[in-house]
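Q&A log
Question type: sequence-to-structure
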Amino acid sequence: MADGGALVDVLRQGPHLGDAVGDPGSRQQAAGAAGLAEIEIKDRDWAADPNAFIAALAKDAPRGTYPRGFTEQSYWTLVASDGGAVSGTVAIE
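Response status: OK
Response body:
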């Protein structure tokens, strides 16, 4: 799709019943169909790599949506006796 306006029109219209049954000419809305509520375009610097992408999403999401390691430092250590069969983790919560 070279025309960005056509893509915006498709996103604005959302899924249609015709799409689900193979008739692209139909414009009836499918019952309970999901669609995009909004779309936001970001600069490349917003997420230079996959970890930065998830961290940027997590920063704006409600707490608990993403693992805490993406938004805050987590302190932990492994504990065990030398050669022991039992081990554990100590974490500051």
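Response note: Residues 50-60 form the longest helix (11 residues).
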